[in-house]
Every structure is written in structure tokens, then in C-alpha cells.
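QA checklist item 7 of 12: single-chain prediction sanity check.
[x] sequence parsed
[x] length recorded as 181
[x] structure emitted
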Amino acid sequence: MKNKNIPAIVIIVLLLAVLGSMALAAQDKYTLKAPNGVAFSEFRGYEKWQAVSMSEVEDGMKIELGNPVMINAYQEGIPGNGKPFPEGAIIAKIKWSKKKSVLSSEGAVVQPVTLQFVAFIQKDSKRFPETSGWGYALFLYDAASDTFKPYGSDSSFGKECYACHTLVKARDYIFTQYAPR
């Protein structure tokens, strides 16, 4: 006697195998490291940090988030009071492409569309003495594969970032101002 359910069972087993392999293939962004050794895992939970500021640039939208150490420093008046940010302060910058959306009572609303990158700046003077205590990392996002990859082929990326940040040396190398609330 033939079992009519065998083709259905085979299809279900194959489907489970394919879905299982896709789940295993999903990237764990927390395993990535920038060429200068800054690891994505050092910023676990950044998605829940408090907003420092946001901006619209020609090719996208950005939000800067601060870990609790950074937010506390801003609330204490740093860097405007002339003090440096404390060890452990971190900013995450998330950038998306943008589009104008529906009209609201305030006009056209610009909204984020596709994630482009996540960048981090962390204060660790012992680890990053050559860049005035700040470590930099940039992780580019590829929407087609839903994966991140570290930017840069060597550790010079952090020095490139630092070169720009020297413009705000008086603000302890941080461009982002704490937005009023």
C-alpha cells in the first residue's frame, strides 16, 4: 500500500531544511570588528540608547544616540563647560537614505528609508591614545543581503575620522551637540 503523504512529507522536510539553513546563515552583527579592533559587540544595546541629536543631510537622515555615560556628561554641561567627556562615553550614529512622504499639517514629512551605516565613537584613552582617547568604527549596511561589513581595509579609518574631529578639539573632538528638550 502506497502512502500518499510521502510527497508532502518530503516537501515539508526540504522546506524546513532550507529555512533552517537560512536562519543559520543570518549574520550576527555582533561578531564583526572594524580594522582598528573596535568590535560591534562593544555597543550591544545601542538601539535603545537616548537620542543626542538628529540631522538631515543631502543624501540622508542621521540620528546620534548616546550611551548613559555620554547622556549624563551632556546633561552636566560637557563639553560646553570646558570639561572632557568621561571614559566610557559612546555615541552611535545611524544613517538612512530618505524620502519625502505624505503631507502633514507641517508640510511634507521626510522619513528614513534604507539603513546605510552605523558608526560608533567611544572614549577610551588607554586603548586609543593616538586619537586623543577616541576610538572610531563604521559598519556599512547592505540591504540586499541584510548584512553589515566593517568599513576600511586597515586601521587608518580611525585616524581619518580623528583628522576631521580635530576641527572640534575644543569640544573634546565631538561635533554633535546635545539637542534641547
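[x] summary fact logged: The chain has one domain: 28-171.
[ ] second reviewer sign-off
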